[in-house]
Design brief:
single chain, about 425 residues, alpha/beta, 10-stranded mixed beta sheet, about 35% helix, globular
């Protein structure tokens, strides 16, 4: 098992303590409809018994001295504070000398001072879902009664800030806000958010008998693109515009996850995000009842791995089926991908978006390919410079002065630098 050794890196699980339940009804949400997979279950809430079983197995399967618990939804704060207090108690019980960390994703509308104090005291990293300025955010992120949610989110952020909680932003790029990249990016600078993850939303409509309407990667050859999806052209222009603003004055001060991951691939180190990694499959998704799926974006019946009550978590995460799922990110690249000069930087991106046809007529190509190619073409000189700086023991932030100096020539040239 040279290339997909299960013990070469830690395995992660994204736990869903409230399943797909949420107090918002964001139009583009890929997860709330997963509740229909459990329509015969009245309460989509993780029991204390399941929490303990999961905690025991998850810590026990780790081969590293650090263990990261990731809590996701739906909306995670639809569980009471007592649930997470219990989680902390169980983590201490089963830690066995390991360092335990927690990250939680929330829409921030339910955050109170009590929640924030708990997060600070227990060193939670809080991810806040917010889609930029009010006009952009409220376009799709609304309550179940259709009311806007921006003001509630900003109130939640203020509570986090007031209580000294470490937080970052997850911002969805869609058909609307993608056309205003600088307004979007500058908003996060204005609210002093230094860690930003931009996520492109792309979904296809495919109606299932149980009421679900989103297509899985293996189905819906005739599925229509959802109207809120970002186009490849929009995505490429968005990334280039934001990068141009960032590279002028924000390197080392504001961190855009995709830019950091791109530089990592340029320098030949793991990128830190699965979408740009060579393989995947090391981050499963655990539903409220203990059902495990291959990935958070692959919670479909065909990617169901089993339940931790019947099958050990480690056995499923390191199973041949899951390892094959992860390896196929590399082994099922299209011809256009395999021939592409930017393969090292993108690795075909996420398999969930591989429903397009490449220029040779081969199916299974990434829908956003053209946007990524535009981005990599655009940023190559800057990435080359930052890579050279790192190799010389200098900070990548020197790129800002290099740009101000008119981008003078420097060794090595791109063809020598980009694939090291």
């Amino acid at each position: 098992m040279n290339t997909i050794s299960p013990f070469a890196r830690p395995a992660y699980v994204m736990a869903k303590p409230a399943g797909a339940l949420c107090n918002l009804a964001c139009k583009y949400c890929y997860y709330t409809e997963k509740a229909k997979l459990y329509s015969d279950t009245p309460r989509h809430l993780m029991s204390d018994e399941m929490l303990e079983e999961y905690t025991r197995q998850y810590i026990g399967m780790q081969t590293m001295p650090q263990v990261l618990f990731t809590w996701h939804g739906g909306e995670t704060l639809m569980r009471p504070l007592s649930f997470y207090q219990k989680a902390i108690e169980l983590q201490k019980k089963y830690a066995g000398g390991r360092q335990i960390d927690n990250a939680i994703q929330t829409n921030a509308t339910l955050i109170t001072d009590e929640w924030a104090r708990f997060f600070r005291e227990n060193h939670f990293l809080v991810g806040v879902s917010i889609d930029g300025p009010q006009e952009f955010h409220d376009e799709y992120r609304r309550t179940r009664t259709g009311r806007p949610s921006f003001r509630q989110v900003m109130q939640g952020i203020e509570v986090l800030r007031r209580n000294g909680v470490e937080w970052n932003a997850l911002a969805v790029v869609n058909d609307f806000n993608a056309d205003y990249p600088l307004d979007f990016y500058n908003f996060f600078k204005e609210i002093d958010c230094h860690y930003i993850q931009f996520t492109p939303v792309v979904e296809r409509i495919y109606r299932h008998p149980d009421g679900r309407i989103l297509a899985s990667p293996t189905e819906g050859a005739t599925a229509e693109l959802a109207d809120f999806s970002v186009t490849p052209g929009q995505w490429g222009r968005f990334l280039c515009a934001v990068f141009d603003e960032w590279v002028k004055e924000d390197v080392g001060e504001f961190y855009v996850q995709l830019f950091d991951a791109t530089l990592a691939n340029w320098t030949g180190v793991p990128p830190g995000i699965c979408t740009l990694a060579e393989t995947c499959g090391h981050a499963g998704a655990l539903e409220f009842n203990g059902d495990l799926y291959s990935c958070d974006h692959f919670v479909f019946p065909e990617y169901f791995l089993g339940n931790i009550r019947q099958h050990p978590l480690a056995e499923m995460m390191y199973s041949d089926r899951q390892l094959r799922f992860g390896a196929e990110k590399r082994t099922k690249l299209t011809r256009q991908c395999r021939e592409c000069e930017w393969l090292f930087a993108c690795n075909g991106e996420c398999p969930r978006l591989r429903f397009a046809t490449d220029k040779h007529g081969e199916p299974g190509h990434n829908y956003l390919c053209a946007g990524y190619r535009q981005f990599f073409d655009h940023v190559a000189p800057y990435m080359d410079f930052m890579k050279a700086q790192l190799q010389q023991g200098e900070p990548p932030a020197n790129v800002m002065q290099w740009l101000k100096d008119g981008r003078p020539a420097y060794p090595p040239k791109r063809n020598d630098a980009s694939k090291g």
